[in-house]
Amino acid sequence: MKYAIIGFGPVGQALARMFARKGIEVVVATTRAPDAIAAQAAAIGTGIIPEPLGDAVQADVILLAVPFPAHPEVAKAAPDWQGKTIIDVTNAYAVPPEDLGQLPSSAVIAKAFVGAQLVKAFNHLPAKILDQDPAVAGGRRVAFLAGDEDGATDAVAALVEQLGYAPVKLGALAEGGMLVQARGTSWAPLIFQDLFKKEG
């Protein structure tokens, strides 16, 4: 299984540290050349591999950590997204709902990545929290998931577990997914909720 993080700002780097903590290799890419992020990637760990965007999008599972308006450009990087899973880490804050056709922002992204299965995850916490080890005081930090395909959501939940988080499934994008999506200049109820699941 090949993983890629597209976007290497504070959130993308925090995601890369998640993979590095668990020794899981992950490709990282932006719309710039790999050399532009090579030093930052090397500082995180040897398993964080910069690649050109066109190569990174060949991964099986892609964590989309770019600003929401940048997603159409990323979507053009592959002719076909069939068989891939997109983990949507974006937030469409300050994007008017009418610009989204009143759809959840994740549904708009899903339309751009034709053929892919999309799961919303890791977007409800800021980078400074995602940067921290999710194991705290006998428990694990919660990661909310929402998606329309059960198989994809289950697969992402397994990755979330592997990365040390406790996955909490919210249901479909248009239902539970709305609990973790910005609408205009309002944040949904579960955004910024830093919750923990006790073990045992």
TrEMBL record:
<dbReference type="InterPro" id="IPR028939">
    <property type="entry name" value="P5C_Rdtase_cat_N"/>
</dbReference>
<dbReference type="InterPro" id="IPR036291">
    <property type="entry name" value="NAD(P)-bd_dom_sf"/>
</dbReference>
<dbReference type="InterPro" id="IPR051267">
    <property type="entry name" value="STEAP_metalloreductase"/>
</dbReference>
<protein>
    <submittedName>
        <fullName>NAD(P)-binding domain-containing protein</fullName>
    </submittedName>
</protein>
<feature type="domain" description="Pyrroline-5-carboxylate reductase catalytic N-terminal">
    <location>
        <begin position="2"/>
        <end position="91"/>
    </location>
</feature>
<dbReference type="Pfam" id="PF03807">
    <property type="entry name" value="F420_oxidored"/>
</dbReference>
<keyword id="KW-0560">Oxidoreductase</keyword>
